[in-house]
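Same chain as my last thread, 238 residues:
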Amino acid sequence: MAGLTYLSFHGVFLLPPILLLSAAAVRSSPRRRDAVGLGLLVAMAVAYTAPWDAHLIRRGVWRYGAGVVAYRIGDVPAEEYLFFVLQTVLTGLWFYRCDAAFGRRSADRRSVANPVGAVGWLLVAAVGVGLLGRPSTFYLGATLAWAAPVLAFQWGYGGGHLWAARRAWATAVAVPTGYLWFADGVALDAGLWHISPTHTTGLSAAGLPVEEAVFFLLTNLLVVQGLLLFDRVVDGWA
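reply #2:
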């Protein structure tokens, strides 16, 4: 897409579905807790992702095309911070649609933790740490080592609740992940950003570097599971 900038990318790919989902949410009389939970997730996403993102930019894992970034905050484009916010909002709004469609679930007090899920994600984190040692697997390793410990905590804290709502969160993760894979592929083809061949495996999924595909899958898992567990905490106070 000729003339596409990072900011206009948001206007083309992220804002339209967010506006549509927001309008649908307003018509369905949303709960106040949904807005609170989404706001908390946005703040956590920005705080947790920004330092990791800045480190990978400094390492040269990716760079941006000429003239596509308007302003930087340190090493990170301002549009990147906006992306953290918009992805979280997009996935969160879609999750609330799925959660309502499958039936909202109260906290499962019979099975709170899920040690199998927690240990599984810790093993993924360990694999990620191991992959950091080689340049060609650095991006993949950094993504796994960054996301998997939080996913392990989520399953260790409320894996029973997550498992009970597996149909809702699987759908809630799959749709925005597929959509963001498509949007990221367009951005790469347009030269908005370039992924370093030195720090990647060269493997691709549907034309997208596997590292990018894993990033969007795991970040959407973090958002959806975080919102489910926020519901569990609030239900537990009731």
